[in-house]
Design a protein that fits this description.
This is Pentacotripeptide-repeat region of PRORP domain-containing protein. The protein is mainly alpha-helical. The protein has a domain of 89 residues: Serine Threonine Protein Phosphatase 5, Tetratricopeptide repeat. The protein contains 18 helices and no strands.
Length: 336
């Protein structure tokens, strides 16, 4: 029976997804592929590499993205030109692999190799390319590629490409630059029109920098653009307001959140409880705690124990006992 490379790659792809393909198995497969005079089937190869790129660590293979890069390099070294079905899609998969393997330098090297091949670049994965620049800490170049180079390559940037740059700018405390980019996204529209994620990213960036007023302004602008904030958006602003001791405004955002059918989570309530506690406003802190538990939510153990201890230290033993009792009840319910 004739050995079918497409079928062999398809079977190996299923084993990757099942977490049972080892590096030795993959190398043996490529031994077979590269010994054959017929071209390696490009579509099946891309599917196999893409599966490796996205495979989590398993007992069989601890680093599938790195394995994909290694196999690709071997293919380039050992395959004859007619047996190398390398397309722009193949290179895009490999750039993604490099990002996942935390080797953006290799991803950019693959991009350089792609440019030297003379292949058309209009199918290159813009997100993978931009992410390589961002992970390599080359943020200004990422912005330049996003705004200028992609169009030269025949690529169309999308919201995901913008979002990865926004996050890096905000992580670098350059939220104002991120805001400028966000405005460009809104102006561009179409596939670049910002949704809740880029808005939340920039709002969180301003909050981390202590620029709460700018965060609130952007929150309002977001609503005017018809983009509904989510729990992450609200919690970022509530946390910043609590740290600024603006508890009235923080609770106002909490009420706005509930009124707009966005469910607060443990972190949301934790921020407000800690904010009130830091000001010695124990009645308000306990009230928020009761609201939180009425929604079936509980503080994490460290925060809860600290809250109980603070109540005891400030003569609030009755409230502390109530919270301790709820802790015991919740643990009993979970164990049952």
């Amino acid at each position: 029976r004739c050995w079918d490379p497409s079928a062999a790659l398809a079977a190996a792809t299923e084993r990757v997804r099942a977490g049972t393909l080892s590096p030795a198995d993959a190398r043996h497969l490529f031994d077979e592929l590269l010994q054959r005079p017929t071209p390696v089937p490009g579509q099946a190869l891309n599917g196999f590499l893409a599966a490796l790129a996205r495979a989590p660590a398993s007992a069989a293979c601890g680093d599938s993205p790195a394995l994909a890069v290694s196999l690709f390099n071997r293919l380039c070294r050992e395959a004859s030109p007619h047996a190398s079905p390398l397309t722009v899609h193949t290179y895009s998969i490999l750039m993604d692999c490099c990002c996942r393997a935390r080797r953006p330098d290799l991803g950019l090297a693959f991009f350089g190799r792609l440019l030297r091949t003379g292949l058309r670049t209009d199918g290159v994965d813009a997100y993978a390319l931009i992410k390589c620049f961002c992970l390599a800490k080359r943020t200004d170049e990422a912005v330049s590629v996003l705004l200028h180079r992609l169009s030269e390559l025949g690529c169309v940037p999308d919201a995901l490409s913008y979002s990865v740059v926004l996050k890096v700018l905000c992580d670098d405390s350059r939220s104002q630059r991120a805001l400028d980019l966000l405005r460009m996204m809104s102006k561009e529209g179409g596939v670049c029109a910002p949704n809740v994620v880029p808005y939340s990213t920039v709002i969180h960036g301003f909050c981390k920098e202590g620029k709460v007023s700018k965060a609130c302004d952007l929150f309002n602008k977001m609503g005017q653009q018809g983009v509904k904030p989510n729990v992450v958006t609200y919690t970022s602003i509530i946390d910043a307001l609590c740290k600024a001791r603006a508890m009235d405004k923080a609770e106002s955002f909490l009420r706005h959140m509930v009124d707009n059918d966005v469910r607060p989570n443990n972190v949301t309530y934790k921020c407000i409880i800690q904010g009130y506690s830091s000001l010695g406003l124990w009645n308000e802190a306990v009230k928020i705690f009761r609201e939180m538990t009425s929604r079936g939510l509980m503080l994490d153990d460290v925060t809860r124990n600290s809250f109980v201890a603070s109540l005891c230290n400030h003569g609030r033993s009755k409230e502390a006992a109530e919270i301790a009792h709820q802790m015991i009840e919740s643990e009993t319910t979970v164990s049952n």
